[in-house]
Design brief:
Elements (H helix, E strand, L loop, with lengths): L2 H22 L1 H35 L2 H17 L4 H12 L3 H11 L5 H8 L7 H12 L5 H20 L17 H17 L4 H35 L2 H15 L7 H9 L1 H9 L5 H14 L1 H14 L5 H24 L2 H14 L6 H33 L1
């Protein structure tokens, strides 16, 4: 039997298993769906939408071209990607998954990246949201804000390691980008190129903004579908005790690494969804250092839910997701190693009181307050945006008729 036929049978059986499980456990499925929908509706949609829209506008106005020319001398020798990759890196870091993949695909469609450069760039420009790392994981789950420094640094350094590793992905492929020197002339050249880019894009600002909103909402609807699907899958696997079986197998690996075997109960759900995994690990009776290392791995690995989201976005642009999947393994492993070193280097007990005091003073303001604000007004933002999206789509379809 050919590999293609085996793949077809496996996929068909997986879909059948999921359908039968949903029918067999309707309450579990509905509760998990509502949980995933609530997360997407209140937090994911309103937090990612502004970044998606702004990135689309910055590409249309030529700002990405400007940044790309300026930072070409830095990004090209280090990561073997154009200077525009710096824009993707920063936007991905600030907004979280899967913004890096979304913006990378957009730049590839605009022919600002080659196929290899886009696949290479997507592998190391997807991050967990810093607000999520500090406000939710460190302060909310572990109740130790100082751990946010360890989680964040290990997460960012781990992704940089992925970028350095991925520079060897298809190393002999030539690029159409030219090497630039860091001279004052390059700034003027960047300004001129940005102006040409804006002039070349003859769309009115209103049309550009409308397209940016529609594209962003379409992507976020897909993201919401994956969040709900994997929330249901995670709960069904737990109900069928498949999660426990996988965790039992992981116990032997943890024992070889001299880790507490109880951590396997948090790793398995973390392989599917990072929020559930991080929360599970924080509640287990295990040494804090081991909890931090495992959580850092989960944040870097990103979970199958986010990996599926990124794979779907890259597939729409006809880009391979294999470098991204490999990057998640490297990112998780590197982050875990960095977490071990940083935990030893940073005196958590000494700095924790100071950092916690800062977090408590900001609880209703910049950090925790911002996250609470997302939850409080997120549903309203999502509802208004979806109404506008539906009306715009209906208007467009009426014009075609």
């Amino acid at each position: 039997m050919s590999a293609a036929k085996i793949k077809t049978i496996v996929l068909a059986l997986a879909a059948l298993f999921l359908a039968v499980s949903i029918i067999a456990f309707p309450k579990v499925s509905v509760d998990a769906s509502l949980s995933g929908l609530k997360l997407w509706w209140n937090v994911v949609f309103p937090s990612l939408l502004p970044f998606f829209i702004v990135s689309e506008l910055m590409i249309g106005f030529g700002i990405v071209t400007f940044i790309g020319i300026l930072l070409e001398p830095i990004m090209r020798p280090i990561f073997k990607v154009p200077g525009a990759g710096a824009f993707v890196f920063v936007m991905g870091l600030a907004s979280g998954f899967p913004a890096g993949a979304k913006i990378t695909s957009r730049l590839y469609e605009e022919k600002k990246l080659t196929k290899t450069e886009a696949e290479r760039l997507a592998s190391f420009t997807n991050f967990s949201n810093p607000l999520f790392i500090f406000g939710v994981v460190a302060y909310g789950f572990f109740h130790q804000a100082a751990l946010g420094i360890v989680f964040a640094l290990s997460h960012y350094l781990g992704n940089i390691c992925v970028g350095l590793f991925m520079r060897f992905y298809k190393p002999y492929e030539r690029s159409f980008s030219k090497k630039e020197r860091t001279t004052p002339v390059i700034f003027i050249k960047a300004l001129k190129q940005m102006h040409r880019e804006r002039i070349r894009n003859k769309q009115p600002i209103g049309k550009m903004l409308g397209d940016a909103v529609q594209t962003s909402v379409s992507t976020l609807l897909m993201v919401g579908g994956f969040i709900i699907l994997f929330s249901v899958l995670n709960q069904l696997l737990a109900r069928l005790h498949i999660t426990d079986s996988i965790a039992y197998g992981l116990k032997h690996l943890l024992l070889l690494l001299h880790f507490s075997p109880v951590l396997s109960k948090g790793i398995v759900p973390g392989l599917f969804e990072i929020t559930v995994g991080a929360k599970s690990v924080s509640s287990l009776a295990a040494p804090l250092l081991q909890q931090v290392i495992v959580t850092s791995f989960i944040l870097g690995f990103a979970g199958f839910s986010i990996q599926a989201q990124v794979a779907s976005i890259l597939a729409d642009a006809k880009l391979s997701a294999k470098p991204f999947f490999l990057g998640r393994l490297i990112h998780g492993t590197a982050s875990a190693c960095f977490a071990y070193v940083l935990f030893q280097w940073i005196d958590i007990k000494q700095t924790n009181n100071q950092v916690n005091a800062v977090f408590e003073s900001l609880q209703n303001h910049a950090v925790t307050g911002t996250w609470i604000s997302y939850i409080q007004i997120g549903s309203l933002v999502t509802l208004i945006t979806l109404i506008i999206y539906i009306l715009t789509k209906a208007h467009t379809n009426m014009k075609k008729i």
